[in-house]
TrEMBL record:
Organism: Ovis ammon polii
All residue ranges annotated as the Nucleoside diphosphate kinase-like domain in the record: 12-120
UniProt GO BP: cilium movement; CTP biosynthetic process; GTP biosynthetic process; negative regulation of oxidative stress-induced intrinsic apoptotic signaling pathway; UTP biosynthetic process
Highest rank taxon of the organism: Eukaryota
PROSITE patterns, alphabetized: NDPK_LIKE
MF terms in GO: nucleoside diphosphate kinase activity
Database matches in SMART domains: NDK (SM00562)
Name assigned to this protein: Nucleoside diphosphate kinase-like domain-containing protein
């Protein structure tokens, strides 16, 4: 008696990847990382979206303060859209991207796309005002500035302009 077994099934997910206009010149490097991460590029297309196409694509963001900037940015130049496939593609792609906040990504996931400095991620966020601006500065800008100024102080650069800039900045901070 011969047992018949169903043919093995390979579960493959697909996900969309977009190389944004400001880093489209890094397409080859990005594709290399994608392929080395086990993805297959099923389809790839370089295109330039109109603001209307971007509005339709990002319709779930409509009404948010950053929506006009997002659509203007994504229609500002050519981009590359790719369909990627692999086992658990969505979770692996999210892992490869890292946290959406590039400041957090640089600290916690430096090898991710969002944490990698060569990607030059542009942060598209609404410009806060009032208390929201103070909170934003305290949460994101001040720690980064303090870290940079501390590092600058440790290095004591030979360029006197940079050193004087640091001294004047420090006086204002006190």
């Amino acid at each position: 008696m011969e047992l018949s077994m169903p043919p093995p099934q390979i579960y493959v997910e697909k996900t969309l990847a977009i190389i944004k206009p400001d880093i489209v010149d890094k397409e080859e490097e990005i594709q290399d990382i994608i392929l080395r991460s086990g993805f297959t590029i099923v389809q790839r297309r370089k295109l330039h979206l109109s603001p209307e196409h971007c509005s339709n694509f990002y319709v779930e963001q409509y009404g948010k303060m950053f929506f006009p900037n997002l659509t203007a940015y994504m229609s500002s130049g050519p981009l590359v859209a790719m369909i990627l496939a692999r086992y658990n593609a969505i979770s692996y792609w999210k892992e490869l991207l890292g946290p959406s906040n590039s400041l957090v990504a640089k600290e916690t996931h430096p090898d991710s796309f969002n944490g990698n400095t060569f990607v030059f991620a542009v942060i598209v966020e609404p410009i806060p005002v009032g208390q929201a601006a103070k909170d934003y500065l305290n949460l994101y800008v001040t720690p980064t500035l303090l870290k940079g100024l501390t590092e600058l102080c440790k290095q004591k650069p030979a360029d006197p302009f940079v050193r004087n800039l640091f001294i004047h900045t420090e006086e204002y901070c006190l």
